[in-house]
Design goal:
With 370 residues, the protein is of the alpha/beta class. It contains twelve helices and eleven strands. Helices cover 43% and strands 15% of the residues.
Length: 370
């Protein structure tokens, strides 16, 4: 099955600010809160402003500009129950979850939310979180091999009875989960996202996931990842959708947007950024081809800790919309957006940017397609 088809409309997600510090490690004013009340209002605002998905972050230990965190799966369920249409993706770490235990939680969350639960499988990059919890720390490619088994096992548990799975990390015998999630032909299981940038991540995404999430990339970086992902998917007769992280700074003028970016970087919390940098740059650099996450990230890139500035969704509504549609032409199916002031900027995006995106998409649609 080819993965080269382009979606009729690009989808939008936002990073749930369920950790303190916002989405940039900077001392600039951020009118964003990690508390529950703020996040409920934000989720409701997002679903009413064209956002289809939200991604809850996962951190376990206070560190690197995110001293306080709400746990991702429980927080995702809370947001699902506070909304009507929004799909909420909970980030999870294999090695800290057993796939059958998470499958049970996910099936319950799916029923309670009428089929809107999803997970993002994160293979782990904070070594200290595993070490401090007394859990085994695996090298990079082994972590992704474990994630590959995790994705296979949870899909089987969600879709089959009497599950048998024999891997190096997980062994499941004659296991049946009931009730299953609210599976449909359009969504045969709760959507499975695979995060990463490395060759191992692309292999997992192409072979086992429904979606592949990339850190921030420019056009060349997206093209390179998509080419690899599509090759793997084709080899396994599969189709995988592509999500791209981007920090969005849309302002009435380009100067305002660029000045905001400049202030974010100038006011970066240098000790926190450097601490994060030292903790994560071993992840990509530990791979054989040096293609993993953060392997070539600069200090400025890491002020937004998933390289969101690299996507360059910065400028006027027209400029941001045009760049989003340019990414769509390459094959990007979803933009995962971070913002400085989430509540007001998601409203601004819904009012000023999204209508322009839809106008550009309509203008480029083939004849007879609307």
């Amino acid at each position: 099955m080819s993965t080269e088809s382009i979606a009729d409309q690009i989808k939008f997600a936002y990073w749930v600010p369920n950790v303190s510090g916002g989405l940039v490690t900077s001392d600039i004013e951020q009118r964003t809160s990690w508390d529950y009340e703020y996040n409920v209002k934000l989720a409701q605002t997002a679903e009413n402003n064209g956002f289809e998905y939200a991604l809850s972050q996962v951190r376990y230990e206070a560190s690197y500009g995110a001293e306080f965190q709400h746990e991702s799966t429980s927080f995702s369920l809370a947001l699902l129950l506070a909304t009507q249409r929004l799909k909420v993706i909970a980030a999870v770490h294999p090695g800290l979850w057993h796939p059958a235990v998470l499958a049970k939680f996910g099936a319950t969350a799916d029923h309670l939310s009428n089929g809107r639960f999803a997970i993002n499988v994160v293979s782990g990059w904070f070594k200290d979180e595993f070490i401090h919890l007394g859990e085994q720390w695996l090298e990079h490619d082994e972590r992704y091999r474990r994630s590959g088994e995790f994705l296979q096992a949870i899909r089987k548990i969600w879709t089959e009875d009497d599950v048998e799975f024999s891997g190096d990390f997980y062994r499941i015998h004659d296991f049946t989960l009931k009730p299953k999630p609210l599976n449909t032909p359009e969504r045969p299981n709760p959507e499975l996202f695979q995060g990463g940038n490395s060759t191992a991540a692309r292999n997992n995404g192409g072979r086992y996931a429904d979606w592949y999430f990339s850190n921030g990339k420019d056009f060349d970086g997206v093209t390179e990842q998509l080419d690899d992902l599509r090759a793997v998917a084709r080899a396994h007769d599969r189709s995988v959708k592509f999500g791209l992280n981007g920090f969005i700074i849309a302002r009435d003028t380009e100067k305002e947007a660029r000045d905001t970016l400049r202030e974010i970087v100038e006011k970066a919390n240098r000790p926190a950024v450097e601490g994060f940098r030292s903790a994560v740059q071993q992840a990509g650099n530990s791979t054989g081809d040096k293609q993993g996450m953060w392997a070539d990230s600069t200090f400025e890139d890491l002020v937004q800790y998933n390289d969101g500035f690299r996507t360059q969704l910065i400028g006027t509504p027209e400029q941001v919309a045009e760049r989003i549609v340019a990414y769509k032409r390459l094959g990007v199916d979803l933009i995962l957006g971070g913002f400085l002031h989430f509540q007001e900027e998601i409203e601004y995006f819904g009012e000023k940017v999204l209508p322009l995106v839809r106008e550009l998409e309509a203008a480029e649609a083939p004849a007879g397609v609307a």
